Amino acid sequence: MPGKPPNIILTIADDQRGTALGCAGREPVRTAAMDRLAARGVRFAQAQHLGSCHGAICAPSRAMLHTGWPYFKLDPTLLNEHGLPKDREVFIPPTLGQKLRGAGYHTFATGKWHNGAHTLHPSFDCGANLFFGGMADHWFTPVYDFDPSGKYPVESCRTAGGFSTEVFAQSAVDFIRSRNGNEQPFFCYCAFTAPHDPRTPPDYWRRQYQPSTIPLPPNVTPGHAFNSDFWNARDGITNEEILITQAQGRIYTRDEILLGTPRDPNEIKRSMAEYYGMISHMDEWIGHIHEAAGEIGALENTIIIHTGDHGLAVGQHALMGKQNLQQHSLNVPLIMAGPGIPRGVVSDALCYQHDLHPTLTELAGIGAPSEPFQSLVPLLENKSTGRSHIASAFENTQRAIRDSRYKLIEYTLGGKNFLRLFDLENDPWEMYDLSGDAGLRGMVGTLRGELVRWQAEVGDISRPVCAGPA
């Protein structure tokens, strides 16, 4: 960008799916600040994460955002909070914060950093209320003060003095206000732990969403993937049905036992109400962060982004978590506004949340690395229509790829390969499998070929796609 480098404010949610936005028009959640941001910028409605073979999902997603590298090429120390190993050399590519810092930015972080203190230290000049874990009680979050030496011994940990969302957002507000009158560009990174469970929104926002009034999505089903008694007692079930369910049952993580099976619709409604309350509370405080930029007169030269690390099922497809390749878990919010960015645009271009890395380095005048993540600047300037296909992974059992309309999910279990094909244009809830439609065999073949190409590009050699027809 010509002239003075823009400031950058980046907020990231933990578990917010891309449709959990008021401006998306699909769910009854109130997000006034995010809606205002979208009205004066661009919302990428089809943004998603690349996935991983790592159950937590959040750590790999954030690592890809910060490094610009695909999951399959990341050092394992980026995928947890435990830091450097003592028995081997580690190569960590320069992070987004590190690149901006090297270009003259004053860099600040607060909130969740799930990629090891050894990567936070070179990325930021300062910070406050840093959380190195994956999840915590929002009222009793263990945090650290910023340590210029990069050392964070356990004895320096303390409990944050308030609700996590408010503590992290207020830290960002205080930092932005401290930049009043300072000409040095800044990068403010605020990573929330909301709306991740335990979902305990403050009373005001809890009261705004009554479970009895929450409509259930049409793809909510009772589900029995985690109920062995159901399968043992059932007669006439097909072998394919068992294997598909078991393949999805590989996601037997903590998320999936938050509710019992079969799923109780009233319990799903309660979970959704709490989920929305957490999002609206976070949105309120995101608004305070944006207001702080206005208070110091920095709004016109600040790129403001809101995104999420991954989505969440909360009852859809009988699932509760994000360890799956359905759209509710892949799709993430991605909104950006600021100098040089079109206003009021909704883009359906296929993109990754991790494309923010080359996008922000390009907008900051540093240059944009390419492949597999791509700068969104050509899309913002109407010089590109984006990718033709986009793919994601989960463990070694599932791979998914889609184009602008069709999406293929492959499941592998017990040496067998199974497919599901969805028409996202006519079936956005992914309820009707079209893989058996003879007229779509060519599409299945095309998508499988693109999936093989993508796996080679990102280094996904751990799970080859089965050759030939499924």
Molecular structure report:
With 470 residues, the protein is α/β, with parallel strands linked by helices. The protein folds into two domains: 7-207 and 263-387, Alkaline Phosphatase, subunit A; 392-458, Arylsulfatase, C-terminal domain. It contains 13 helices and 17 strands. It has helices at 32-39, 58-67, 96-102, 117-123, 164-178, 203-207, 228-233, 239-248, 265-295, 327-330, 356-363, 377-380, 441-458, and strands at residues 7-14, 41-44, 47-48, 51-52, 106-112, 126-131, 142-143, 158-159, 186-195, 302-308, 334-337, 345-347, 351-352, 390-394, 398-402, 406-413, 416-423. The strands form four sheets. An eight-stranded mixed β-sheet has the order 6-5-9-1-10-11-2-12, sandwiched between helices. The protein starts with 6 loop residues before the first strand and ends in a 12-residue tail after the last helix. Residues 466-470 have low confidence and may be disordered.
Topology:
Blueprint: E1 7-14, H1 32-39, E2 41-44, E3 47-48, E4 51-52, H2 58-67, H3 96-102, E5 106-112, H4 117-123, E6 126-131, E7 142-143, E8 158-159, H5 164-178, E9 186-195, H6 203-207, H7 228-233, H8 239-248, H9 265-295, E10 302-308, H10 327-330, E11 334-337, E12 345-347, E13 351-352, H11 356-363, H12 377-380, E14 390-394, E15 398-402, E16 406-413, E17 416-423, H13 441-458
Parallel strand pairs: 1-9, 1-10, 2-12, 3-13, 4-14, 5-6, 5-9
Antiparallel strand pairs: 2-11, 7-8, 10-11, 14-15, 15-16, 16-17
